[in-house]
Amino acid sequence: MSEKETKTSLSAKYNPKEVEQGRYQFWLEGKYFEATNDPEKEPYSIVIPPPNVTGRLHLGHAWDTTMQDTISRMKRMQGYDVLWLPGMDHAGIATQAKVEAKLKEQGTNRYELGREKFLAKAWEWKGEYADFIRSQWEKLGLGLDYSRERFTLDDGLSDAVKEVFVKLYEKGLIYRGEYIINWDPQTKTALSDIEVIYEEINGKFYHMRYPIKDSEETIEIATTRPETMLGDTAVAVHPNDERYVHLIGKKVILPIVGREIEIVADEYVDMEFGSGAVKITPAHDPNDFEIGNRHNLERVLVMNEDGTMNENAGSYEGLDRFECRRQIVKDLQDQGILFEIEDHTHQVGHSERSGAVVEPYLSTQWFVNMQPLADAAIDLQQQEDKVNFVPKRFERTYLNWMENIRDWCISRQLWWGHRIPAWYHKETNEIYVGKEAPEDLENWEQDEDVLDTWFSSALWPFSTMGWPDTNAEDFKRYFPTGVLVTGYDIIFFWVARMIFQSKQFTNQKPFEDVLIHGLIRDAEGRKMSKSLGNGVDPMDIIEKYGADSLRYFLLTGSTPGQDLRFHWEKVEATWNFANKVWNASRFSLMNLDGFTYEDIDLSGEKSLADKWILTRLNETIEQVTKNTDKYEFGEAGRHLYNFIWDELCDWYIEMAKLPLYGEDDVKKKMTQSVLAHVLDQTMRMLHPYMPFITEEIWQQLPHQGDSITIATWPEVNQAFHDEKASQEMKRLVSIIKSVRNIRAEVDTPMSKQINILIQAENQKIVDELEKHRDYLERFCNPNKLIIETNISVPEKAMSAVVTGAELYFPLEGLIDFNKEIDRLEKELTKWTKEVERVQKKLGNQGFVNKAPQAVVEEERQKEKDYLDKQAKVRARLEELKG
Q1: What pLDDT is stored for residue 6 in this prediction?
Q2: Between the N and C ends of the chain, which has fewer C-beta atoms within 10 Å?
Q3: Rounded CA gap, 48 and 27, in Å?
């Protein structure tokens, strides 16, 4: 379509499905979302937080990605070379669990298939769900550069993972050892500390007496996990505890097992807690593990990886750990060893992935030595060029975690993921770590485990750009990225890891800003979950109200860092807003029929409405730009909404009908020019928030260019800023609203003419209002309109006060006299409260001295205005009562 052949019609009714159908394909075919590498433009990049290929996207994903899309669309329109890079995460445990569940339904499992065939099934799953995710991105209208789409198991990203593992190993920052780790018996894999969710449960304290060898004495211990006593290798007491000094070095007989274990002295023991004696189980408790190391204690593992008891559990072998607990408690009671069971509320770790109770478990795993990496990341936040957290309070959350960091267990007992690049010599047990396998491979076996999924996603901002090739074009141009948008729930999981890995391997921060948002909750404030059945599928919302309505609700419903409550009514309200935009545009286009981009001329004489709307457009551009740049989407949306609904639709378009339907062609053309220009600029501002409807409308407006996605962002034009017109329009609107309010009070429709008397403060205001008499007559429908400085006020009349004038409406039997007095008394109360509020503010020396002078002056003007209105209402009351 050429610039002169502009369509000037929209369908009679706004139908989101029709508007959104095929539009995304139009954008993709135009390659509007692809980064250009244009050296004339400043680069700006965002990497999408890669969704897991475990299922379809939820409402939180929609919120998160809509914010990114809004930022990237605005930056593109502002002239940046924008790269918004899409991709997905293999999601280790989560995906493997889904694939295994599917295999179980088919009557098989991964062990029957073998590693190679199982991985082929996992890749099939990835392909299927990646397609689902892309279709949802399309429905949301996300402006992603698919030419650069990545997956965490891509060859390039796998190279980056190997590079990082090998380099950290060579620096001594990755090591392998036997430690107590968090073990998920359901998925049979290790977990990092932050993959453990602690929940308060009502448990038990089991009090037992262990017999001392060759003695009538016993020693009392208590535990919440009696099944682990089968792995006890000592009892510990404090070396200064006088109750037990004589027992240190002696043996106790471990009940049920009959094994002799030593009583050791260790300062870790709290003499004040319980009996002051504790059982030591080095293979099943992290603190006991450390005590065991200090005393060279044997480590006896009594459980299998699936949470059942092993051969070291004797007669309990094969029992589930909790069934073993029940059985062992009964046996200990029967033997008189267990003498008390006490109710005990305590925190119990659960797997973030499977929900299973986590078992502290002795295992040989790979770890990252975190302290040096954390120190460098903390130091980065002391620099001027640090990562900027929005809201700033989350920086403290991040630093608190980094300052109390523990080593990171990175190995996982899975098949789906990045296999650890370590090999073990079959004869010598020598360990070889490298990006490539050893040359004499027949003598080596590769580690069966894979890396924690967060290990690869920690490299996402730079691995997706081509690193470790530091000469990669995208890495050199688009890294570091501009902003990371994510929820506060993964600051530790992901944000922290990206920062310390980026600092370690690129010596740069991975992003300028981290924009933190909260969680989406239901209308009652509850977290959305399957168990509550309160989740909402974003595709269902789009089906009913369209993507633009969903996007606008998500963007404007919260402030940075805060949770968002979902209300269907609020989504419907945003649909109503979109419908308002549609209807206003449709009316405008019908009155721009045949009007081209070349016809737009704003240089001639303008009406008051023209000057006012151009001024308000300037102010709205300033506010929307400023607030979107600060990620204050709700505030930007408020300015857009008010400008479009209240000012453009309800006032300007109504006033524009006068010249549009009039006989003066010069005035008509000016109004068409203003209308076309303002609508064009408004659609551009609204576009990042509501991309589909704005593209549809903009394409039919007189315009230049192929798509609004690459149209330039509006800028303030000082030539169109007219403060005088704004003040005059404000007074005019106040008068018209007052007339409408009075009509409503006396139940007089607009179709019925009434007499209106306006007493202006001075001749200047008289002249001003006379100049705009056509507006007053059009919107007030007076029988008689008198505008003077000195008016003979009828005894029986209603009144209203506006800045600079008083309005009178002769009653002529239309109203109850007493009701008018009552109304005026209420109005007097209102203005009295406003006077008290502003005077209290101005009486506060802290405000007067510290606030900007312009703000203080604005409050003084309000005081003057309110006092004036108060005096006029009081005088009118006295007249009526007299």
Answers
A1: 41
A2: C
A3: 19
d(CA 157, CA 469) in angstroms, rounded, equals: 11
For residue 683, the model assigns a pLDDT of 98
Distance CA 683, CA 66 (A): 18
Q: Cα separation of 126 and 120, whole Å? A: 10
Coil, strand or helix at 708: helix
Residue 515 · residue 483 · CB < 8 Å:
yes
Backbone phi, psi, residue 749, to 5° = -65, 160
At residue 816, the pLDDT reads 65
Rounded to 5°, the CA angle 806-812-815 comes to 80
Do residues 131 and 21 lie in contact, with contact meaning Cβ atoms separated by under 8 Å? no
Dihedral of alpha carbons 521, 526, 530, 533, sign: negative
d(CA 209, CA 708): 79
Burial string for 267-296 (b: 16+ CB within 10 Å, else e) reads eebebeeebbbbbbbbbbbebbbebbeeee
User: Distance between alpha carbon 615 and the CA centroid of its chain, in Å?
Assistant: 34
Output the furthest CA–CA distance in the chain (Å, rounded): 118
Name residue 408's beta-bridge partners.
368
Residues 6+ apart with CB under 8 A from 472: 465, 466
Look at the alpha carbons of 494, 283, 355, 400 in this order and tell me if their dihedral is positive or negative. Answer: negative
Copy the structure tokens of residue 638. 């408020």
d(CA 639, CA 407): 48
Q: Residue 516: what residue type? A: I
- Residue of 781, 796, 783 whose CA lies nearest to 749: 781
Rounded to the nearest 10°, the torsion over CA 851, 857, 862, 868 is: 150
Q: Please tell me the chain's helix, strand, coil percentages from 3-state DSSP, rounded to the nearest 5.
A: 50, 20, 35
Q: What is the pLDDT of residue 4?
A: 35
Q: In what order do the strands lie in the sheet with 422-425?
A: 431-433, 422-425, 444-446
CA 610, CA 606: separation in Å to the nearest integer? 6
Which of the residues in the chain have pLDDT under 70?
1-8, 812-816, 882
- End-to-end distance of the chain based on CA atoms, in angstroms? 72
CA–CA separation, 85 and 90 (whole Å): 17
Cis peptide before 480 (omega within 30 of 0): yes
Burial of 795: CB neighbours in 10 Å, binned 0-12, 13-18, 19+:
exposed
**Measured CA distances, 526 to 156, 417, 521, 684 (Å):** 41, 34, 5, 36
Q: What is the pLDDT of residue 813?
A: 55
Token pair 């204690």 is found at 297
652-674: string of b/e by CB count within 10 Å (b at 16+)? bbebbebbbeeeeeebbbbbbbb
Which residues, listed in sequence order, are joined to residue 390 by a DSSP beta bridge? Answer: 515
Q: Compute the CA torsion angle 639, 640, 645, 651 (nearest 10 deg).
A: 70
Strand segments (E) across 238-283: 251-253, 260-265, 277-280
CA angle at residue 41 from 38 to 44, to 5 degrees? 100
Task: Tell me how many degrees the CA angle 85-89-95 measures, rounded to the nearest 5.
Answer: 155
Say whether 27 sits in a helix, a strand or coil: helix
Contact criterion met (CB below 8 Å) for 701 and 592: yes
Strand partners, 755: 784
Can you tell me the distance from the alpha carbon of 683 to that of 708, in angstroms, rounded to the nearest whole number?
8
Contacts of 282 (CB under 8 A, 6+ apart): 231, 233, 288, 289, 291, 292, 293, 297, 298, 299, 300, 362
Number of residues that this document lists for the chain:
882
What's the one-letter identity of residue 878?
E
